[in-house]
Amino acid sequence: MSNGNISRRANIFPFPPYLNYYEIIKKKEIEGKRIYNLFKMRYHYNYPEFKEEIDEEKLIEIFRNFFNIPNDFKIIVFPGTISALSTIFFTLFDTNDEVLVPEPVHPLLMISSEISQVRLKIIKTYYYNNFSIPLRDFIEPLINPRVKGFFIFNPQFFSGNVYSDEEIERIVFFSNTYKIPLIFDETFSFSTFKDVFFNSISKLRINHNYKFLVNRIVESYSGINLTFIATTIPLYVIIKRYRDVLFPVDSLLINSAYSFLTKFFNTINNVRQKIFENADYIYKTLLSKDISVIKPHAGPCLIIKLPVKDTDKFIEYMLEVFEENGSSVFLMPMTEFFIEKEKGKELLTLNFSNIEKIEVEEGMRLLKSGINNYLKEVL
Fold this sequence. Notes:
By secondary structure, the protein is of the alpha/beta class. It has 2 domains: 8-44 and 269-377, Aspartate Aminotransferase, domain 1 (Alpha-Beta Complex); 56-265, Type I PLP-dependent aspartate aminotransferase-like (Major domain) (Aspartate Aminotransferase, domain 2, 3-Layer(aba) Sandwich), CATH 3.40.640.10. Helix content is 41%, strand content 16%.
């Protein structure tokens, strides 16, 4: 039964768990406490105002050229990630069909699957091996007639792990064998570190046309709600038709995104350098006998394992109790990104790709100090 005019599903909808923390951070900052937020999901970039009217094809061209997307992939622009993923899911899958996804799971994927009434079926991964995709023997038992898709973040969003050729080949093998569609989010492929090889879905040998490349670069780095989908021609027609009718993109969005990307691509080396430096500093600063850090291969995030039993309680302590000179720090507990929440109890994640050096340095100092105080005062 619904409660008044509010449906049951409205109360169980999987809103991103970091939103509750953002509300606490805002409240604390109003009270005068400085919180270094190291898990910003969007970065508001200063992009130039557009001086001419840009059509969608010109925006697509600059995106295609930068990410080297082959011409046999047609590109569609959507007003945000939720509309893009929901359209893919609605087009490919029926109600209660299942999509295989390695954990930890991105909250935008949880939301899109809920809207589309598609079930996420988890491929279990583990901290001790950098959340690598398991061997075929562990994946095959998960496949049944209701499994209609694979969704892969590469680089992996939370850990910054770039999947090896062998890992990707395991997914491609099952996709080719059972004709299961592939959806790859490759937003942060531009940020792979210098000694890491990245293998895009657009280059893989897939023997069917059911493949999608998703890229949220504009949304992630500017706050502009625009997402790119690249797919093969048979699927392009119906996807674009849904986009045109349900999620039209206005000229202001197109022009704003073009202005942003023009500046962003021109300064991409500086952006990459900041990502590399932040990741290296965090890794070297935190790694110790008590704190374990997965060394990322790319942006945007990395994962830290703390010597505490419950990172939700630790972060609550950092926001409500701990402070030095009126300041504290926020990182995101990982419990909500696993089906088995216990797997995330000792883990935190932070987004190092869109924070400034001073935030990194102060954030790490406050985190180490907070851990020491927490272990003394609470445990």
